[in-house]
């Protein structure tokens, strides 16, 4: 059998072979250093004209963009010219700042007012049509991910009224504004870091998918498409559910259905487990329920834990399930209390709000009831 020179050498001279291998291993780092790193590219189309009066960034904002551009080139290997082409078009948007400012201190939360914005006839009717049009995709999502159709329908309805209101803010502008000029807030540093990460994810997503980042539009907070996913969530949880070979949450409601269901499954949704039950507090209870509140986005309490703080379910509860106590404040009226399972808290990972999660549940139930009443298949 004829060997190559290398293998013949190893076969005939073991001692010299060991020396040869040692030299080869020492050479590997040098060889590796000579391989050029992959350069990430971005699609960029510079505008023909810019309204200087309408779009005027502060010097500090432009400096922050320049520093971010250099960091992205260094950390990810982006072509610097591509980055500059994109980020030089980013504009500080004062409307975004106004939208994210919290309500004035002392404004009471009101669940019933919040609920009325979303559980209304126009959205319910649109939801029934969406369900009928995408029945097969919704059933497929339930089979794969275990998430019932009414929950997916509820989320897409709350987020965009089934694709009607996907937002018209340029994502680059919105995220740059929030990444480098978030208004005063107790958690300002965390918010700055969050939106800086989302701006980074936008550029990575655009490079990975061959998207012009300046074409991305969405909410004032940088959320995109039918389900209003942030760019980092698109990269982690979005799926090609219509089988066309690409993930497109801006134009494909079927991709949105699968992606919402996948997101919930990845955040603890348990197939077949209930979601939420009404509860009440005993009026003469000597112990406060406060210790059962604010336990994080997870169900941690047993029925015995709830009894210890005088929380009573209004209906029979399944055994061997953990619960979280949910308080829905109603302004100056009595607070509503509910008991949520891990499925309830999976929804709060989509939006960290009890009001939001309950609205999703209520809208989905209202759409299901409408379908049944009108015998919609």
From TrEMBL:
Domain Transglycosylase SLT: 61-365
Pfam families: SLT_2
CDD domains per the UniProt record, alphabetical: Slt35-like
InterPro entries: Lysozyme-like_dom_sf (IPR023346), Lytic_transglycosylase_MltB (IPR011757), MltB-like (IPR043426), SLT_2 (IPR031304)
Alphabetical GO biological process terms: peptidoglycan catabolic process
Catalytic residue positions: 159
Example GO molecular function: peptidoglycan lytic transglycosylase activity
Span of the signal peptide: 1-32
Gene3D superfamilies with a match to the protein in the record: 1.10.530.10, Bacterial muramidase (1.10.8.350)
Record's keyword terms, sorted: Signal
Name recorded for this polypeptide: Lytic murein transglycosylase B
Organism: Oxalobacter vibrioformis
Taxonomic placement: Bacteria, Pseudomonadati, Pseudomonadota, Betaproteobacteria, Burkholderiales
């Amino acid at each position: 059998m004829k060997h190559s020179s290398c293998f013949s050498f190893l076969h005939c001279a073991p001692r010299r072979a060991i020396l040869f291998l040692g030299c080869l291993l020492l050479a590997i780092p040098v060889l590796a250093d000579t391989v050029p790193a992959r350069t990430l590219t971005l699609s960029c189309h510079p505008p023909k004209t810019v309204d200087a009066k309408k779009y005027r960034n502060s010097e500090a904002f432009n400096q922050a963009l320049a520093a971010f551009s250099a960091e992205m080139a260094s950390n990810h290997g982006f072509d610097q010219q591509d980055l500059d082409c994109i980020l030089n078009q980013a504009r500080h948007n004062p409307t975004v700042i106004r939208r994210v400012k919290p309500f004035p201190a002392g404004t009471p939360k009101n669940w019933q007012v919040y609920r009325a914005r979303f559980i209304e006839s126009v959205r319910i009717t649109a939801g029934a049509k969406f369900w009928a049009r995408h029945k097969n995709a919704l059933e497929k999502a339930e089979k794969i991910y275990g998430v019932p159709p009414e929950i997916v329908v509820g989320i897409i309805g709350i987020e965009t009224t089934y694709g009607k209101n996907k937002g018209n803010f340029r994502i680059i502008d919105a995220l740059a504004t929030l990444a480098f000029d978030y208004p005063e807030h107790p958690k300002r540093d965390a918010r700055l870091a969050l939106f800086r990460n989302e701006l980074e994810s936008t550029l990575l997503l655009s490079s990975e998918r061959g998207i012009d980042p300046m074409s991305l539009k969405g909410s004032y907070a940088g959320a995109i498409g039918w389900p209003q996913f942030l760019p980092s969530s698109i990269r982690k949880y979005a799926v090609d559910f219509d089988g066309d070979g690409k993930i497109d949450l801006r134009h494909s409601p079927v991709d949105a259905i699968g992606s919402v269901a996948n997101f919930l499954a990845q955040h603890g949704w348990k197939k077949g487990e209930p979601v939420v039950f009404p509860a009440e507090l005993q009026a003469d209870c000597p112990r406060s329920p406060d210790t059962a509140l604010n336990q994080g986005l997870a169900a941690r309490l047993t029925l015995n834990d709830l009894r210890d703080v005088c929380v009573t379910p209004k209906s029979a509860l399944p055994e061997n399930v953990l619960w979280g106590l949910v308080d829905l404040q109603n302004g100056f009226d009595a607070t509503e209390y509910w008991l949520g399972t891990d499925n309830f808290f999976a929804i709060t990972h989509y939006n960290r709000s009890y009001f939001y999660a309950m609205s999703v549940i209520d809208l989905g139930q209202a759409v299901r009831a409408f379908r049944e009443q009108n015998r919609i298949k």
